[in-house]
Specification:
Layout: H1 3-21, E1 27-31, E2 34-38, E3 44-50, E4 52-53, E5 62-66, E6 69-73, E7 79-82, E8 85-86, E9 89-90, E10 98-102, E11 105-109, E12 115-121, E13 123-124, E14 131-136, E15 139-142, E16 147-150, E17 153-158, E18 163-169, E19 171-172, E20 181-186, E21 189-194
């Protein structure tokens, strides 16, 4: 075969490859005060069972709220992870990552609900300027409507999960974006910490 035929064969298969690689887009629908999912043809793929459901995203995953809280599911209704609830909804993505909870520990996942940073922390703050402040032996204390994190030891991780500041400080300030520094306090002694 000559080059023209090879080129025609490749061009003929490109649309098929694009169609096959598309993730299944499911849309939430309500029936009798509970939500399920339908495909683009209106066929029910996941029967109504959730209190709240968001349409599947372009990565083929959906966020739903049920008896166990906020979860991320695939088109077969398999639970991929338990999403941290933030402000009455699933955690918001910050710099491409959001938080999940596993065995009462926090980690981070991407928009495909793939776990990027293992759940190794008692609490993790949202990613900000490429880092997350994390703590162990800390606890969430509720004032009724809101919660604060108290006690424990704090450190800083980057978006890959690498520990940048050891988890040994009583408190850490916010990062100064101009100087790329933050202040850590340990045993009443304050220390300026320079980030890489």
């Amino acid at each position: 075969m000559d080059r023209k035929i090879y080129l025609l064969v490749i061009l003929a298969f490109l649309p098929l490859l694009a169609f096959c690689s598309k993730k299944l887009q499911l849309t939430a629908f309500e029936e009798n005060d509970v939500y399920g999912y339908k495909d683009q043809n209106g066929k029910v793929q996941i029967s109504p069972q959730y209190s709240i459901a968001y349409d599947f995203n372009e990565n083929g995953v959906g966020f739903s709220f049920g008896k166990g809280g906020w979860i991320c599911i695939d088109p077969q209704n398999e639970v991929l992870l338990n999403v941290f609830a933030f402000d009455n909804g699933p955690d918001e993505f910050s710099e491409g990552l959001a938080r999940f909870v596993e065995n009462s520990k926090f980690g981070f996942f991407d928009s495909s609900c793939k776990k990027i940073i293992a759940a190794n922390y008692d609490f993790a703050f949202q990613i900000h300027q490429g880092f997350s402040k994390v703590c162990n032996d800390c606890k969430s204390v509720s004032d009724g409507e809101h919660s604060t994190i108290e006690g424990g030891k704090y450190g800083l991780i980057d978006k890959t999960g690498k520990v940048i500041v050891p988890i040994e400080y009583d408190s850490l300030s916010e990062i100064d974006p101009e100087t790329k520094t933050l202040e850590g306090s340990k045993g009443g002694v304050k220390k300026e910490i320079k980030l890489p």
